[in-house]
Amino acid sequence: MNRSIAIPAQQTRLQLVRFGKPQEQGVVQLERDAPVPVPTGSQVLVKMLYAPLHPADMLTIVGFYPGVRYVVEQKPGFVPGLEGCGVVVARGEQATIPLGTRVVPLLGEEAGSWQQFVCVEGKQCICVPDDIDDRIAAQLFVNPLTVVGLYKEMEAAVDLVDNPWILQTAANSTLGRMMIALAKHHSLKTINVVRSAATVQELKELGADVVIVVEQEDDPHSNKSWDRKVLEITQGKGVAAVLEAVGSDIGSMACSCLQSGGLYLAYGAQSGKPIRMSNSDLIFKDITCKGFWLSRWFRKQPPHVVEDLFDLFRSQVFKPCIQTVLPLDRYLEAFRLQREKNRRGKILFSLAME
């Protein structure tokens, strides 16, 4: 094994002890004496620098996110965390990534970024260019690449020149803000659905064409609802595509806003509830409803898709939006902040706990 620094025998990590609400006692536990793995063969040991907290991570803790195999198997006792950034500090005899290289380990269905050291196959690492900041690299995969993938799926399925209007739910999220930026870059028009009015002005400053606040538009005492506003904005045509992350009534209503031949693309399920879909829309409007899972999409992409993503940061189409950086031992505070509906950026864990 090749190594460049003194590597401790133990590390600090967060372990999911049992599935449940993230802030409940005994669900997640901080371990300060967990073993540091030893890389063999073509593996590398990555000293983690930063790891973000995503909605999917929260769903993993609850036991609802099937993108992590331990959730599917209902086997707690693992380290959550879908992504992060670190430095290669040791490697197996057959590994080729140079020591000291900054990398994004692609953890996939194993998860595991909420710890100080991660051991992965070298081929599972994206090397980070010198001009990309650590905090950008730490949140490179889940949000920005998903935005790129969603755009490419829309581009392939619908005519975005004939109708440039798209609608997205959960628009105040980090991903939602990046989609506003990418849509503007490609001359698309966005209708952005949010729960609260607190960030409306911020989203408009980012380039949002329309922001719909659900709690303002829906009137339980009348037949008025925000989907009618969408039809007014699009002059009765509807939107070319819907990018949906919530489910439940919001997702159902978003689906009803599609034009004939429109695309409903689901990439999240924050409410944990399904949508209701109209047979009439499926038959007479010929809409397409499908899901988007980044891991599956990414496996089919050419290598340059990552370099293209770096270029979007270099050109500042994508800009990092970080609300706060917290040490791993303040995880309960991070979970609380993640649940706030007016959150204004990504929450990062700093893994360099001395």
From TrEMBL:
Residues 26-349 form the Enoyl reductase (ER) domain. Keywords: NADP, Oxidoreductase. The keyword NADP applies. It comes from the Eukaryota. The keyword Oxidoreductase applies. GO terms for molecular function: NADPH binding; oxidoreductase activity, acting on NAD(P)H. Pfam families: ADH_N, ADH_zinc_N. InterPro entries: ADH-like_C (IPR013149), ADH-like_N (IPR013154), ER (IPR020843), GroES-like_sf (IPR011032), NAD(P)-bd_dom_sf (IPR036291). This is Enoyl reductase (ER) domain-containing protein. It comes from Galdieria yellowstonensis.
